[in-house]
What we know:
The chain is 45% helix and 25% strand. It is built from five helices and eight strands, in the order βαααββββββαβα. It has helices at residues 15-29, 34-52, 58-90, 159-170, 179-183, and strands at residues 7-13, 97-104, 108-113, 121-124, 130-134, 137-143, 146-151, 175-177. The radius of gyration is 22 Å and the shape is elongated.
Amino acid sequence: MAARRDIVIPVRLDEKTFRRFARFDMLRLRKRWVRPAVFALILVAFALVALFSRRPQSGMIAAVLLAVGLGLPIVYIGMFLSQVNLQAQKWQLGKGKSVYTVTLRPQDFTVVNQQKTGEAVTIPWKEASQAFRMRGCIYLYGSPARAYLLPDGQASCPDAEVWDAIVQSLGADKCRMGLLARFRK
């Protein structure tokens, strides 16, 4: 087998890719929708109990419980999406901005931040957390709390080769492919 060459990815991030990642990270990976959903279900159940109790003002109590039970989760999700949009504007991502360069090597990967001067971060593959191949981008988690986005078409080789190198280095058990990404092969 031939030795694998280094893969260099100068990442140019845009708002759309950043928003898609933020939704994935919060809703699918971290499942932050579960608590608001459970809260809503509990209050809706209490509202139904109050409504069918046929006590005085049970209709008003049910309406208040429904409004709070459905309103707060909607506000929670809305605030999250608003914060993502504000962050994208703060970083001036617009149609795209050079943010960092990732170099994949057989033993590790290095990230050089284009926004700040400082040392590069080198992460050995055995310390990296996981990777996801989603539509239009690879999410490479250097740690459970830190991901590097690798949008399609920005690497020094084809996107399939980038994904294959990550799977080979990180291990197939730590790599997952989204449904839409599977059809793009």
